[in-house]
């Protein structure tokens, strides 16, 4: 239930009048990361026994049982997240660096843009550490510039070990991303918000629009990609078929003669 509440917060469905929302939270206690994580250049694993409940990025092998990592980009773990234009983002994280050979290893935890096809990245919000003990870093709410690259670029959370590190690892725990939508930034305000239920939904989502007449609608995933679109001749209580959509976070964008809006929901 806690995870569902966190997801509801991320899409503005839990305490919808609050301006600050939790986008993502991970303490790695389960030892399993979902398939949405992207790995590059290093071997990720649950931290060693002394650091259970943390996730680690290995830069080469400390026990020399594996060949060195040659990827010039260093070790990277990236988790795509929803992006809301005009919002302010906050990043909090605990980090630990293990660098027994003194190679100059440092850990980075960042928010920003990553293109998996080209390797290009831009992380305007970040924390960096080379301290060989656990340190908790708290961030301020900061603006996030729009996508600087183009189609295929993802917004999200990155955990990175620098490429010059050898036989070292970085560990991350208690990661939290919060979002604040300033007053005046349009995102389907109270006057243009549809009623969606049940939330989370399964195969069907009931929708009641606050307008009359024809409504054009579309469903987008957490990265803004268009998945489905349609038109209803009359904006009465309607049912959307969610069959074929995987579990996750979605946005329903709609537009009528009197108003338009974006409302978010979860398919469970």
Description:
- Helix content is 3%, strand content 46%.
- The protein has 268 residues and is mainly beta.
- Strands 1, 3, 4, 6, 9, 10 and 12 form a seven-stranded antiparallel β-sheet that branches. Strands 2-5-11-7-8 form a five-stranded antiparallel β-sheet, with no helix packed on it. A four-stranded antiparallel β-sheet has the order 16-15-18-19, with no helix packed on it.
- The radius of gyration is 21 Å and the shape is elongated.
- The N and C termini lie close together (12 Å).
Notable characteristics:
268 residues, mainly beta, five-stranded antiparallel sheet, 19 strands, disordered N terminus
How many helices?
1
What do the pLDDT scores average to? 75
Radius of gyration: 21 Å
Number of strands: 19
The amount of beta strand, in percent, is: over 45%
Residue windows where pLDDT falls under 50 for at least 5 positions = 1-19, 61-73, 183-191
Biggest beta sheet summary: 7 strands, antiparallel
- What sort of overall outline do the alpha carbons produce when their principal axes are compared? elongated
Class based on secondary structure composition and strand pairing: mainly beta
Task: Tell me the helix content.
Answer: under 10%
> End-to-end span in angstroms?
12 Å
How do the helices and strands follow one another from N- to C-terminus? HEEEEEEEEEEEEEEEEEEE
